Amino acid sequence: MSAIASAVFNETNTEVKLQEEEKQQAEFQRIIKNARASTDLLTQVALKEHDAWIKQTRAEIRVLMEIIYQHSSSLRNDVTKKEELKKNVMAKLTEDLELIEKLNETLKSYGATGAIKELQEVANKCSFPLKTNKMKEVITGAKELLEKHFDGLAILEDMFTILDEDRFVKPGVLPTGYNLYLQSESDITVFGPNDNNIYGNSKGTFLKTALLYICMAYTGKSKLSDLNLPKQENRSWIDGSAISHIITLPPALTLDTLKEIDPRFEKFGLFFSDETTPQGLVTVHSGFAFGGHRSELQRYPNGKPFGPEDCSSWLMRLTGCPHPVTNADLWFFYNAQFNPIFKETPEYKRWITGSEPRAIADTFEAVHPYQVLKDPANEIIEGMICVYINFDLNNDPSKTGTSKYTGHAAFTIGYKSGPAGTNQSKIVTLSYNRDMSEVEGFGLGESPAPSPDANNPTNVLIFSIKGRSAANMTLISEGSNTNIPSVQQIDRNQKTQFQLSTG
């Protein structure tokens, strides 16, 4: 191909790609507009929760920036002080990175569990959020951000402008691509890389961590929990935070024990201790933690406003499911409806004796994909639950679910029809998700539509939610101090069709 022909080809390819991106963006905006106008109550609640989380996150970041702005005035023209500040911040990040690596290495000998009793009584158990914490990756990302943009983040000039009684961060104050605002108030975060704002991937987590460590350096604090930030009554600021969270450490991992591993744990920036949580780990996040915050019942018996969630923990809270369930539980429930052979497996017979089957049966109804696909664009609607399963096809070619697999559960808000005769249709969903650093937070993603092939068990499970019409639901907590909407079910006396049999 000649140089001219190659240039023309590349230009055409670029134009086609841009057209496709614009088409996809327009389709997303159509689905968002329809979801915003939906009369489905849970859809309203889910979107209001997204909006409240964005607002709270933005407010907390602005508080950090204001602290930095106030302290940085004396450094703006002092090169020596700037260099000393950067040295201190980077040294603290480096030390805490080494310490979190040592803590995580220690946790390798601990088994993860979601059972509160086990966490309290079994010496070698820890919670899923602790076992899968990403603070090593988070601190690494914050260091890399500060290596590129330290002066821009630590030495803030005139930052704010007042618009509509809100303090907007001026364009150019934060690095390009780190905007705190979506394109409009009605917009919804979309997972994945983006060139505009901090939502939908790990950019926001890295930014928050960088700002927190700069604030520590300016205020002479050695621990994040010691920062003097707005708080609820006499509790830590972290207890009301949408950007940070406390995870309980196992009883054996006291500060004295950690100091035996490395004396520097005395001033570990992520260590937390108070009367309720004698030893804990402070995490910085963008909404997601594996296991959510279900393991922190002692600290948050009624849940934590803006606490981190994973895909299933949020859906169980949103739908009022009376017992914690996982994607695996949803798959077992679904498979039992449409695959009689599965009921004969030892895995099913063990599972059916637990509390999860009844909780799911009281809350959800499995929708058979071959029924749905008669008219998927109109029958897969907002307010349904979509679960995608990645099977271990080497050990489980029939997709029974009896071998290890991973999955993701999400709240459906729309359906994107692909070209006729293709497999390119997508279910558009809202969820908590994390696949650092490309995906992280609370936002929109896509799932493949269920397969219409009756001989090929689907990887995509669809559930409707029982008793969830606006007629028998009431929106509560609209006027609460957290601004997080929630729902309260008035009547769930609907008879279940799921038979809790053992064979």
Task: Please supply descriptive tags for the structure shown above.
503 residues; alpha+beta; 3-stranded antiparallel β-sheet
H/E order of the elements? HHHEHEHHEEHEHEEHHHHEHHEEEEEEE
Q: Quick one: how many beta strands? A: 15
Radius of gyration: 24 Å
Percent in helix: 25-40%
Widest β-sheet, arrangement of strands: 8-13-9-10-11-12
Distance from N terminus to C terminus (CA atoms, Å) equals 66 Å
Q: What class, by secondary structure content?
A: alpha+beta
Word description of this protein:
This protein is an alpha+beta fold. The chain has 14 helices and 15 strands. The strands form five sheets. It has a six-stranded antiparallel beta sheet. Strands 5-7-6 form a three-stranded antiparallel beta sheet. The chain has a two-stranded parallel sheet with strand order 1-2. Helix 3 (79-107) packs antiparallel against helix 6 (135-154), helix 3 (79-107) crosses helix 7 (203-219) and helix 6 (135-154) packs across helix 7 (203-219). The longest helix is centred in the first third of the chain and has 34 residues, at 3-36. The protein is globular. Residues 469-503 have low confidence and may be disordered.
